[in-house]
TrEMBL record:
Gene3D superfamilies per record: HUPs (3.40.50.620), TPP-binding domain (3.40.50.1220)
Family: Belongs to the ETF alpha-subunit/FixB family.
GO biological process entries: fatty acid beta-oxidation using acyl-CoA dehydrogenase
InterPro entries named in the record: DHS-like_NAD/FAD-binding_dom, ETF_a/b_N, ETF_a/FixB, ETF_alpha_N, ETF_asu_C, Rossmann-like_a/b/a_fold
Domain of life: Archaea
GO molecular function, one term: flavin adenine dinucleotide binding
Protein name, entry field: Electron transfer flavoprotein alpha subunit
Higher taxonomy: Archaea, Methanobacteriati, Methanobacteriota, Stenosarchaea group, Halobacteria
Gene this chain is encoded by: etfA
Record key words, sorted: FAD, Flavoprotein
Domain Electron transfer flavoprotein alpha/beta-subunit N-terminal: 3-184
Amino acid sequence: MTVLAITEHRRGELRDVSLELVSAGRELADELGGDLALAVIGGDVDAFADELNRDGVDTIYTVDEGEEFNHGVYTQAIEQLHDELDPTALLMPNSVNGLDYAPAVAQSLDIPLVTDVIGLEGDETVEVTREQYGGKVETTYDIDADQYALTVRPAEWPTAEADGDAAIEAFDADIDEDALGTTVNGFEEVGGGDVDISEADVLVSVGRGIEEEENLPLVEELADALDATLSSSRPIVDNGWLPANRQVGQSGKVVTPDVYIAIGISGAVQHVAGMKGSDTIVAINTDPNAPIYDIADYGIVDDLFEVVPELIEEFGGEAP
Ligand code: FAD
């Protein structure tokens, strides 16, 4: 039995979810009594293969095809690897890219797909857990199929750290250029630069309590004073005050910083789904009954316009 996990990289860097897939894949392979194979597709695959060579990985397949992510290349390469390896489980990241190709791959291979998986238990069959209704309930699915595909939620498994001694093999995918569907002409970051809030150690996150766009410099100043990254709840992005890549939550990014400071954020389930894995959560909110306090480690029940300037000064900044 083989578990095949598809890794992910972006702009020359391996994404954390790839090493989390090693942990999830190894866990499932142990329960099923099988091997763990990884695939890395795109440019610089040999360097990524070295980075992916962690304890528990049996084989790493490199598919040297193009520099940037291309839906058609990934779909064709994964289908061909699947035909070759005949894996029981196909694991993919529940990321923007993963969700782009996973349904197409599953459909083409005619295997069931469960997305956004947060728990795995294997025996004769496999049980997978996922959240529904914005995290209000967890549902367990018993997959009764010989072969299946799963997308694994980022930040649910630890990153695999220990060095390994996997075999590294080049896989020669036969890509049909005419069937790609899209051509990648280049890569341009959307507004917000190349900030990746999911990689930040400290996040200062702002919500509707900030009231107006003109007040944003206040929280930006706190982020500067703390050497932190600015993120937000969805209304701030919906209002166009910050770009979409700053949004934390169910329809934004999942973050796991050391410290998450929620300022004027109520703690709706859709927001909490994206930040509950933070090590230490600090909330600043005037409403003592705000749900954010249910998960906060420290809370300041007070007006953010009073508290934040004091914090800025405390940390050596200057309030605007
Ligand atoms: P509010 O809920 O309005 O809270 C503002 C808070 O600020 C209040 O608790 C208030 O007490 C406090 N406050 C007000 N003034 C002050 C002050 N002066 N000082 C201190 N505190 C103050 N939301 C996300 O964030 N991310 C998502 O990915 C996301 N995805 C969604 C997906 C779906 C399908 C749906 C239906 C919703 C989604 N939402 C998401 C929206 C979510 O339901 C909430 O509406 C949103 O999180 C609320 O944002 P907020 O906490 O900033 O605003």
